Amino acid sequence: MRVAPVADIKAKFSSYLNDCRDGPVVVTRNGHAVAVLLCVEDDDDLERLLMAHNPKLRRIVLEGLKSIRETGGLSEEELWAGVDSDY
Questions:
Q1: pLDDT in tens, 51-87
Q2: What is the DSSP letter of 38?
Q3: Which of 47, 56, 67, 72 makes a 20 to 30 Å CA pair with 38?
Q4: CATH code for the domain defined by 2-37
Q5: How buried is 10 (Cβ within 10 angstroms: 0-12 exposed, 13-18 middle, 19+ buried)?
Q6: Which residue, 20, 12, 56, is CA-closest to 41?
Q7: Each residue's pLDDT tens digit, 5-58
Q8: Paired residues of 37 in beta bridges
Q9: How would you class 78 by CB atoms within 10 Å of its CB: exposed for 0-12, middle for 13-18, buried for 19 or more?
Q10: Could you tell me which residues come within 8 angstroms of residue 82 by beta carbon, excluding any fewer than 6 positions away?
């Protein structure tokens, strides 16, 4: 993992884009981390990254996990009945 100041990133952006293939590049301003350059290999990588940082999706997943703990979740039959009713 590399660490570089924003001024250096701005001056050599293409080089740092290549460098992030080997691992994240931490961007700093006044000595403090402010961003990270990550390599995205394909659309799936991008989708996973965006989903991982989506507060609405995170809230939905946490609410679902809480519901499963409290109720035991759905049986397989209930799941497929719900799927079938949507189509």
A1: 999 999 999 999 999 999 999 988 888 888 888 776 5
A2: -
A3: 56
A4: 3.40.1620.10
A5: exposed
A6: 20
A7: 999 999 999 999 999 999 999 999 999 999 999 999 999 999 999 999 999 999
A8: 25
A9: exposed
A10: 74
Residue type at position 53: H
Structure tokens at 58: 């995170």
Beta bridge partners of 32: 29
Tracing tokens 């701005």 back to the chain, one arrives at: 10
Residues 6+ apart with CB under 8 A from 17: 37
Structure tokens at 85: 């009713």
Going from N- to C-terminal start, the domains of the chain cover 2-37, 43-85
